[in-house]
Amino acid sequence: MIDIRFGPQVCGDLTGGAAREWLVTDGLGGYATGTVSGLRTRRYHGLLVVAGETPASRRVGLVGLDPAVVFPSGARVRLGAHEWSSGDVDPRGFELLERFDLTDGLPRWRWRIGDVVIERELAMTHGRPCVAVVHRLVSGGPVRLDLAAVCTWRDAHGERRADGPAPRVEPVPGGAVVESAFRLAGPDWTPEGQWWRGAHHREEAARGLNPDEDLWYAGRFSGGLERPGDTVSVLAWAGELAEEPPPATEVVATRRARNRRVVAAAKPADPVEATLTLAADAFVVGTATGPDVVAGYPWFGAWSRDTMISYEGLFLCTNRAAEGRELLRAYAATLSEGMLANTADTGRVEYNTVDATLWFLHAVSRHVTVTGDTDLGDELLPALHGVVDAHLAGTRFGIAVDPADGLLTQGGTPGTALTWMDARVYGVPVTPRTGKPVEVNALWVNGLAGLAELTELAGRDAGDLWRLHERAVAAFRDRFPAPTGWLHDVLDTPAPAYPLGGAAHHDDELLRPNQLLAWSLPYAPLAPDEPTVRRVAGGLLTPLGPRSLSPDSPEFVGRHRGGPAERDGAYHQGTVWPWLLGPYADAARRANLPVDDLFVGIEAHLTEYGLGSVSETADGLAPHAATGCPFQAWSVAELLRARRNSR
């Protein structure tokens, strides 16, 4: 894997160290995450964040373990880091960090206090909400190490205040149980019980959200470090509290070995691919219904659109087709009126996309094509035919095939945003894209052809599907090319205000990246030509991927910053989306454009934000600072897939 390590110039600089985040997951949707500097900059940062009934219903438990080194003289040096609502940063343990590295996906810190060097490494048990934190004396000593257990128990999206009840902490052998929800175990536990008021999260402040909360200092562990090699370790776990995990050092070693096996199974071609393979592993989680995909950490759960766009990269490019097979079968069971369920993140199952179902057709087709698993194709064939039938008849939100041209239209309900560009500000869609979006119809054409092939593989006649496909292709080729030299983004979109006697609809010519799918999909309706792809690249392409809107547009927003309304307003109006590098790479390759150097910028990004991973978004203007989730499934998956295909 690529070498990810930082010395004191980054670790000791709060701006640089706190901007780089690490992530370790438990395979269930829970995680531990934080920054290189040790400063918690998000409400989501913690050492034990536990998934609930769905991956999105997470709760923060163990916030931190603040180390303090106590010398024989009684001198005490604190190694933690906190920012407070007063603006103070205290303690400033990051100033003593001499190195941070991410090895086999596991974070490791090294502090130097004169001749005393202490190392911390951290891992989670795969398949159980359990974190192990190991501290090792590297040189110097003897010293004592105190570890302050800072706790809460709250929804990951919220905060807890001292004006409410304090967390219940019950002593048990070797530690304590907090709120009957998670258990702490380590050496020489001493209960404390004190509010630490006004912990500040600078990233939440930057996002226009409540940045402050109060933390509960539950108690401390303490152990001696007499000679180099001695360790002081703490375990924290949820779930079966009476079932003690293996020793912390064993948890770390076991997880390191598993991570190496995951990478080896994918047979990566180079260190970047190995790094992306391990990054992909974080998003594949086990649930009560089988494998699923977390769209992004630290705040997303499972979203079917993200899952299906990510499918080939996460499962087929990493040799996890058996898990993928079960996922596809489980998602097929959610089909209703020809639509795939989108998400349960909101607390209820929602059917509110025009494209997730079409991405599902694509994922099944790719699975069968890549693996030869025709049994799955045969099993799902009735459901997939039901999707086409429902779209021909018309389904929710006015999603239907237009009998006039065979293209797919959507958005018959006011206030809806059904494509992947679905941001709303105060309930009003920023980009409703009502009508016939270009990528939706590219996916429709692609889905019909893929289903026709699956039908023929099953020994059935696919004539009706091919006729639907041919009609849609002809209409696509006739209608989507625009006078601008690229493709219309949406056809037949309602005109908001036309003079009396003017047209009721118009065709949207804004330069957006959605048209890339018209050239990149396996059964794309168009063959790309070099001049057109160059025009699209000239207006949209950045080192981290295509922008969502050309800077030439009056509606372009170059910074994805500010409060929720500002960020949502910019989300698809110029913000960069790294996942779109996948479609762009495919389109460029088919247009005989070079792609060898396409990934240089985003590969460098692997050490800049979410370490070893790829961010959700970035600013549309240079220097294209990363935004959104630091760890995003479709960003990782499409980079992995596109790099593999470029070989």
TrEMBL record:
Xref: SUPFAM superfamilies: Six-hairpin glycosidases (SSF48208)
Example of a GO MF term: 4-alpha-glucanotransferase activity
GO BP term, example: glycogen catabolic process
Domain Glycogen debranching enzyme C-terminal as annotated: residue spans: 279-641
Matching Gene3D superfamilies: 1.50.10.10
InterPro entries referenced in this protein's UniProt entry, alphabetically: 6-hairpin_glycosidase_sf, 6hp_glycosidase-like_sf, AGL/Gdb1, GDE_C, Glycogen_debranch_N
Residue stretches making up the Glycogen debranching enzyme bacterial and archaeal type N-terminal domain: 20-226
Protein name stated in the entry: Amylo-alpha-1,6-glucosidase
